[in-house]
Design a protein that fits this description.
B: two-stranded antiparallel sheet; 6 strands; globular
Chain lengths: 413, 116
């Protein structure tokens, strides 16, 4: 995103949050704001850019809201007029930031978890539904319907924009989870990430930065930002010249971005000092341990295995369980890792690429070449990125065409 | 819910069928889509330009001609019939199809409900 686009996005979310928080009508606020932007294009060309463009846009959007309410003669008309008049009376040069409340409403438990991420991207960042749909691999029509349903529910059920203090940690986590989903599984080394799934990484980092600012007392917000920055720091090193995937163990640390790593370290340190450990801080700590070990030439196996042990207790998601199995296989041997993979229900693992990659890798280490080849095939077939696909194909080729090498099986460590 | 994944390929894409890397990727995809219990039928198709024969009745008169019905840059190159919970899942499988890396297109079409 270029600076102008970023500034526009920052304004968009701020203005929309202020408009919607009073009326609960996200769709109405979006329409009003869009009209205000449109009016600005012509008006500013004639009169020049106003001294406070945001205040100008806000006033224009509020008038549109009033117009619409009058036209529709809704039962809410008085309510809207009253609110808008109250708002107009406020000092137009100074208005607050309601984006935190907007984030909370997007992640409300009554809103389907699948629509929380798109809702945030659209309302806080102003991304259009078609772009969100492609990035999240959902049909545009489906995405449009989901967003519309969610907004209607927020308005009609009057889902509160405020969060009771006792619900704050839980709701904060839902917000962070939705931002993490926008980032995707790009950080996951075993899954890697190519062009197609990297579409929203910048937006996700932007949202995470915003959340750190809006929730300064929440260590998990810093944990999430740190986690993303660690992953971003390695983005260039993760791909070869030809686009082929390069796993962490083979990356050239000189191609990592030291600034991002330094920022991530500082965030994680500050989060740790708050004394409330959470899954996102643990995931960031795992990244930190990996990078440390690679740079110093030591082994992170023990540390990573212990961190996953803790993480799997707190957040046993499918991705974490698979990564835990791989981590444990490095300290306790592939048989132990494989038993953890075996414990995952087939209904969850059947179409999860990292599971089959991990399984293939562990079977290979056990010398079960035929089984490993089968698992590699499943992983290759499930790959969405050509870089990953080629990397897995090469791993399978390296196994050779020979049958199981009984007696010649490696010791498995 | 049943869907058809219709794979359209360009000439270049069809030619790549002889590339061992592409073949290996496709074999793995077929293995994964059937191995996951998602696909229940499907097949690759021979080159549309040279092997297709079209049959139709025009005003009651039988017309048989060489070549495909619609002459387009992309040709139908294969299909899978899959059974998945929803369109999101169907799109997930479409995204995994190796043809897309070679300029191919995957069309996702919901099947008509089967009569009970």
């Amino acid at each position: 995103m270029d600076p102008v686009e970023l500034a526009a996005r920052a304004s968009y979310g701020r203005l929309l949050s202020i408009l919607a928080v009073r009326t609960h009508d996200l769709a109405g606020a979006e329409d009003a704001l869009a009209e205000a932007f449109l009016a600005a294009v012509t008006q500013w060309r004639i009169d020049g850019v106003p001294r406070n463009p945001e205040a100008w846009l806000l006033t224009a959007a509020r008038r549109k809201l009033v117009d619409t309410a009058r036209r529709r003669r809704t039962r809410d008309e008085k309510h809207v007029l009253l609110q808008v008049n109250v708002d107009e009376a406020e000092d137009a040069d100074f208005f607050g930031d309601e984006r935190l409340r907007l984030l909370f409403v997007c992640a409300h438990p009554a809103i389907d978890a699948a629509v929380r991420t798109p809702l945030m991207l659209q309302t806080v960042l102003g991304l259009d539904a078609a772009r969100i749909a492609s990035a999240l691999r959902v049909a545009p029509k489906t995405m449009g319907q989901r967003l519309w349903r969610a907004k209607t529910k927020i308005r009609d059920a009057r889902i509160p924009f405020d969060v009771p203090a006792e619900e704050l940690p839980e709701r904060s986590f839902a917000v962070l989870e939705a931002i993490y989903a926008a980032y995707g599984s790009g950080w996951e080394d075993i899954a890697g990430a190519g062009a197609a799934s990297r579409g929203l990484t910048e937006e996700a980092i932007w949202l995470a930065r915003l959340t750190v600012r809006l929730l300064p007392e929440e260590p998990e917000a810093r944990g999430l930002l740190a986690l993303m920055l660690y992953a971003e720091a390695r983005a260039n090193a993760r791909r070869g010249e030809d686009g082929a995937y390069i796993p962490l163990s083979e990356q050239d640390p000189s191609r990592w971005d030291p600034h991002r790593i330094a920022e991530a370290e500082a965030l994680l340190l500050k989060a740790a000092r708050m004394g409330r450990v959470g899954p996102l801080q643990l995931e960031a700590a795992i990244q930190s341990a990996h990078l440390d070990a690679r740079r110093s030439g030591s082994s992170a196996d023990r540390a990573v295995s212990l961190l996953y042990e803790a993480l799997v207790q707190m957040a046993p998601t499918l991705g974490v369980r698979v990564a835990h199995a791989v981590a444990l296989s490095k300290t306790d041997g592939p048989t132990r890792g494989l038993s953890l993979l075996d414990a995952i229900e087939p209904s969850a693992s059947h179409d999860y690429q990292p599971y089959w990659s991990a399984r293939a890798h562990l079977l290979e280490r056990l010398g079960r070449r035929d089984d490993a080849r089968d698992a590699y095939d499943r992983a290759i077939g499930l790959a969405e990125e050509d870089g990953i696909r080629r990397w897995l194909l090469a791993k399978k080729r390296a196994l050779g065409e020979t049958a199981d090498a009984s007696g010649r099986a490696r010791d498995g460590v | 819910m049943r869907y058809a994944l219709l794979v359209y390929e360009t000439e270049a894409c069809v030619k790549a069928r002889h590339d061992p890397e592409y073949q290996a990727a496709y074999n793995a995809y077929i293995k994964a889509i059937y191995g996951s219990g998602v696909a229940f039928a499907g097949s690759g198709l021979q080159d549309a330009a040279t092997t297709t024969t079209t049959y139709r009745l025009v005003g009651g008169e039988r017309h048989i001609q060489d070549g495909p019905f619609a002459d387009t840059k992309e040709q139908l190159a294969g299909f899978f019939l899959i059974d998945v919970p929803d369109l999101d899942k169907a799109l997930e499988w479409a995204a995994r199809c190796p043809s897309t890396e070679r300029g191919g297109i995957v069309e996702v079409r919901p099947a008509l409900e089967q009569p009970k």
